[in-house]
Amino acid sequence: MQLTRRDLLVMGSVGMGLTALGVSPAMASLTDDEIAKITEGAEVGTGDLVVTAPEIAENGNTVPIEVSAPGAAMVVIFADGNPTPAVATVNFGPLNPTRAASTRIRLAKTQNVVALAQMEDGSFQKAMANVKVTIGGCGG
Amino acid sequence: MASGVKPRVKVPKTAAAGDEITIKTLISHKMESGQRKDGDGNLIPRSIINRFVVDFNGQNVIDVTLEPAISTNPYFQFDATVPESGEFKFTWYDDDGDVYETAKQIAVS
Q1: Is B64 at the interface with chain A, CB within 8 A?
Q2: Domains (ranges, CATH) in chain A?
Protein backbone atom coordinates (compact mmCIF):
# COMPACT_ATOMS: atom_id res chain seq x y z
CA MET A 1 0.00 0.00 0.00
CA GLN A 2 1.27 3.40 -0.89
CA LEU A 3 0.88 6.27 1.58
CA THR A 4 -0.78 9.35 0.17
CA ARG A 5 -0.22 12.75 1.60
CA ARG A 6 -3.74 12.65 3.07
CA ASP A 7 -2.99 9.40 4.92
CA LEU A 8 0.11 10.90 6.44
CA LEU A 9 -1.74 13.99 7.63
CA VAL A 10 -4.41 11.85 9.33
CA MET A 11 -1.82 9.64 11.02
CA GLY A 12 0.15 12.65 12.16
CA SER A 13 -2.77 14.41 13.77
CA VAL A 14 -3.92 11.25 15.55
CA GLY A 15 -0.42 10.73 16.87
CA MET A 16 -0.15 14.26 18.17
CA GLY A 17 -3.53 13.96 19.84
CA LEU A 18 -2.44 10.83 21.68
CA THR A 19 0.79 12.44 22.86
CA ALA A 20 -1.08 15.44 24.23
CA LEU A 21 -3.46 13.14 26.09
CA GLY A 22 -0.60 11.10 27.49
CA VAL A 23 1.36 14.08 28.73
CA SER A 24 -1.29 16.19 30.41
CA PRO A 25 -2.35 13.85 33.25
CA ALA A 26 1.29 13.14 34.08
CA MET A 27 1.97 16.84 34.63
CA ALA A 28 -0.86 17.05 37.15
CA SER A 29 1.17 16.55 40.32
CA LEU A 30 3.78 18.90 41.72
CA THR A 31 6.21 16.06 42.27
CA ASP A 32 6.08 15.03 38.63
CA ASP A 33 6.66 18.65 37.64
CA GLU A 34 9.76 18.79 39.82
CA ILE A 35 11.03 15.48 38.49
CA ALA A 36 10.49 16.64 34.90
CA LYS A 37 12.46 19.80 35.69
CA ILE A 38 15.44 17.75 36.86
CA THR A 39 15.39 15.06 34.19
CA GLU A 40 14.57 17.50 31.37
CA GLY A 41 12.58 14.82 29.62
CA ALA A 42 15.19 12.07 29.93
CA GLU A 43 13.90 8.57 30.51
CA VAL A 44 13.48 7.51 34.12
CA GLY A 45 14.06 3.84 34.80
CA THR A 46 14.16 1.64 37.87
CA GLY A 47 17.16 -0.10 39.28
CA ASP A 48 19.05 -0.57 42.51
CA LEU A 49 17.57 2.57 44.02
CA VAL A 50 15.58 1.71 47.14
CA VAL A 51 13.54 3.91 49.47
CA THR A 52 13.01 2.41 52.89
CA ALA A 53 10.21 3.91 54.96
CA PRO A 54 7.82 2.58 57.59
CA GLU A 55 4.47 1.33 56.28
CA ILE A 56 2.63 3.17 59.01
CA ALA A 57 3.95 6.30 60.72
CA GLU A 58 2.09 7.30 63.85
CA ASN A 59 3.58 10.77 63.94
CA GLY A 60 4.13 12.60 60.67
CA ASN A 61 6.58 14.98 62.34
CA THR A 62 9.46 12.51 62.32
CA VAL A 63 9.30 9.70 59.82
CA PRO A 64 12.59 7.81 59.48
CA ILE A 65 13.48 7.11 55.87
CA GLU A 66 16.50 5.70 54.11
CA VAL A 67 17.57 5.93 50.49
CA SER A 68 20.11 3.55 49.05
CA ALA A 69 21.31 4.16 45.52
CA PRO A 70 24.48 2.29 44.56
CA GLY A 71 26.22 4.16 41.77
CA ALA A 72 24.26 7.37 42.19
CA ALA A 73 25.80 10.82 42.17
CA MET A 74 22.72 12.58 43.47
CA VAL A 75 19.40 11.61 45.03
CA VAL A 76 16.43 13.96 45.29
CA ILE A 77 13.68 13.04 47.73
CA PHE A 78 10.07 14.17 47.38
CA ALA A 79 6.94 13.71 49.48
CA ASP A 80 4.09 13.99 46.99
CA GLY A 81 1.38 14.87 49.53
CA ASN A 82 3.19 17.71 51.28
CA PRO A 83 2.38 21.37 50.56
CA THR A 84 5.82 21.64 48.96
CA PRO A 85 6.96 18.24 47.74
CA ALA A 86 10.74 18.74 47.90
CA VAL A 87 12.33 17.12 50.96
CA ALA A 88 16.08 17.01 50.37
CA THR A 89 18.75 16.78 47.71
CA VAL A 90 21.67 14.54 48.58
CA ASN A 91 24.91 14.83 46.61
CA PHE A 92 27.34 11.99 47.24
CA GLY A 93 31.05 12.75 47.25
CA PRO A 94 33.95 10.54 46.14
CA LEU A 95 34.50 9.27 49.69
CA ASN A 96 31.01 7.85 50.01
CA PRO A 97 31.15 4.11 49.30
CA THR A 98 27.54 2.99 49.78
CA ARG A 99 25.64 5.98 48.38
CA ALA A 100 23.08 5.58 51.12
CA ALA A 101 21.72 7.99 53.69
CA SER A 102 19.04 8.00 56.35
CA THR A 103 17.25 10.94 57.86
CA ARG A 104 13.92 11.92 59.40
CA ILE A 105 11.28 13.82 57.49
CA ARG A 106 7.89 15.45 57.94
CA LEU A 107 4.84 14.08 56.16
CA ALA A 108 1.56 16.02 56.15
CA LYS A 109 -0.66 13.02 55.38
CA THR A 110 -0.67 9.50 53.97
CA GLN A 111 1.35 9.65 50.78
CA ASN A 112 4.24 8.37 48.69
CA VAL A 113 7.86 9.17 49.37
CA VAL A 114 9.52 9.40 45.96
CA ALA A 115 13.25 9.30 45.31
CA LEU A 116 14.86 10.26 42.03
CA ALA A 117 18.49 9.29 41.58
CA GLN A 118 20.89 10.61 38.99
CA MET A 119 23.47 7.93 38.35
CA GLU A 120 27.10 8.64 37.62
CA ASP A 121 26.51 8.01 33.88
CA GLY A 122 23.75 10.65 33.87
CA SER A 123 20.77 8.30 33.67
CA PHE A 124 17.87 8.53 36.10
CA GLN A 125 16.17 6.07 38.39
CA LYS A 126 13.01 6.43 40.43
CA ALA A 127 11.62 4.55 43.40
CA MET A 128 8.86 5.18 45.88
CA ALA A 129 7.43 3.95 49.16
CA ASN A 130 3.94 4.47 50.51
CA VAL A 131 3.63 5.69 54.09
CA LYS A 132 0.36 5.79 56.02
CA VAL A 133 0.41 8.74 58.42
CA THR A 134 -1.88 8.83 61.45
CA ILE A 135 -1.08 12.37 62.67
CA GLY A 136 0.18 14.84 60.04
CA GLY A 137 3.39 16.75 60.53
CA CYS A 138 2.87 20.23 59.14
CA GLY A 139 1.32 22.00 62.11
CA GLY A 140 -1.94 23.88 61.69
CA MET B 1 17.67 30.47 65.73
CA ALA B 2 21.16 31.40 66.59
CA SER B 3 21.19 30.22 70.18
CA GLY B 4 21.09 26.73 71.60
CA VAL B 5 22.18 25.04 68.41
CA LYS B 6 24.34 22.10 69.35
CA PRO B 7 25.78 19.74 66.76
CA ARG B 8 26.40 16.15 67.81
CA VAL B 9 28.44 13.79 65.69
CA LYS B 10 29.37 10.14 66.13
CA VAL B 11 32.51 8.97 64.31
CA PRO B 12 34.65 5.95 65.28
CA LYS B 13 38.04 6.99 66.73
CA THR B 14 40.06 4.47 64.75
CA ALA B 15 39.69 2.52 61.53
CA ALA B 16 41.76 0.43 59.15
CA ALA B 17 42.87 2.10 55.91
CA GLY B 18 40.14 1.96 53.26
CA ASP B 19 37.50 1.00 55.82
CA GLU B 20 33.87 1.97 55.42
CA ILE B 21 32.66 3.63 58.57
CA THR B 22 29.19 4.81 59.54
CA ILE B 23 28.71 8.38 60.68
CA LYS B 24 25.70 9.67 62.57
CA THR B 25 24.99 13.36 62.97
CA LEU B 26 22.34 15.29 64.84
CA ILE B 27 21.98 19.00 65.32
CA SER B 28 19.46 20.65 67.61
CA HIS B 29 17.40 23.07 65.55
CA LYS B 30 13.67 23.68 65.51
CA MET B 31 13.48 23.72 61.67
CA GLU B 32 10.49 26.08 61.53
CA SER B 33 8.80 25.09 58.27
CA GLY B 34 7.06 28.37 57.42
CA GLN B 35 3.75 26.49 57.20
CA ARG B 36 2.72 26.75 60.85
CA LYS B 37 0.61 29.50 62.40
CA ASP B 38 0.87 31.00 65.87
CA GLY B 39 -2.03 31.53 68.27
CA ASP B 40 -3.21 34.65 66.42
CA GLY B 41 -3.27 32.96 63.03
CA ASN B 42 -0.10 34.63 61.75
CA LEU B 43 2.36 32.53 59.80
CA ILE B 44 5.54 31.77 61.70
CA PRO B 45 8.37 32.66 59.29
CA ARG B 46 10.56 29.89 57.92
CA SER B 47 13.83 29.28 59.75
CA ILE B 48 15.67 26.12 58.83
CA ILE B 49 19.11 24.74 58.19
CA ASN B 50 19.28 24.64 54.41
CA ARG B 51 22.57 22.88 53.73
CA PHE B 52 24.73 20.25 55.40
CA VAL B 53 28.20 19.32 54.13
CA VAL B 54 30.72 16.72 55.29
CA ASP B 55 34.32 16.72 54.07
CA PHE B 56 37.23 14.48 54.93
CA ASN B 57 40.68 16.05 54.44
CA GLY B 58 39.15 18.37 51.86
CA GLN B 59 37.37 15.63 49.91
CA ASN B 60 33.61 15.64 49.88
CA VAL B 61 31.64 12.82 51.51
CA ILE B 62 28.09 14.12 51.37
CA ASP B 63 26.40 17.41 50.55
CA VAL B 64 22.73 17.69 51.42
CA THR B 65 20.28 20.45 50.56
CA LEU B 66 17.57 20.51 53.19
CA GLU B 67 13.98 21.66 52.66
CA PRO B 68 11.36 22.49 55.28
CA ALA B 69 10.15 18.87 55.14
CA ILE B 70 13.16 17.74 57.18
CA SER B 71 12.21 17.09 60.79
CA THR B 72 13.15 19.12 63.84
CA ASN B 73 16.71 18.35 64.99
CA PRO B 74 17.93 17.13 61.59
CA TYR B 75 19.51 13.70 61.77
CA PHE B 76 21.66 12.09 59.11
CA GLN B 77 23.33 8.73 58.90
CA PHE B 78 25.66 7.77 56.06
CA ASP B 79 28.88 5.91 55.28
CA ALA B 80 32.36 7.15 54.46
CA THR B 81 35.58 5.60 53.23
CA VAL B 82 38.68 6.42 55.27
CA PRO B 83 41.83 6.27 53.12
CA GLU B 84 44.15 7.82 55.75
CA SER B 85 44.21 9.47 59.15
CA GLY B 86 42.58 12.82 59.15
CA GLU B 87 39.68 14.98 60.10
CA PHE B 88 36.01 14.93 59.23
CA LYS B 89 34.60 18.42 58.94
CA PHE B 90 30.88 18.93 59.41
CA THR B 91 29.21 22.17 58.39
CA TRP B 92 25.58 23.24 58.69
CA TYR B 93 24.28 26.42 57.04
CA ASP B 94 21.34 28.23 58.65
CA ASP B 95 18.74 30.34 56.80
CA ASP B 96 19.77 33.36 58.93
CA GLY B 97 23.36 33.14 57.70
CA ASP B 98 24.79 31.33 60.70
CA VAL B 99 27.23 28.52 60.08
CA TYR B 100 27.65 25.72 62.61
CA GLU B 101 30.83 23.71 62.43
CA THR B 102 32.33 20.75 64.18
CA ALA B 103 35.20 18.39 63.41
CA LYS B 104 36.23 14.85 64.39
CA GLN B 105 39.63 13.21 64.16
CA ILE B 106 40.03 9.65 63.01
CA ALA B 107 43.24 7.65 63.23
CA VAL B 108 44.05 4.94 60.72
CA SER B 109 46.01 2.08 62.29
Answers
A1: yes
A2: 5-131 (2.60.40.2470)
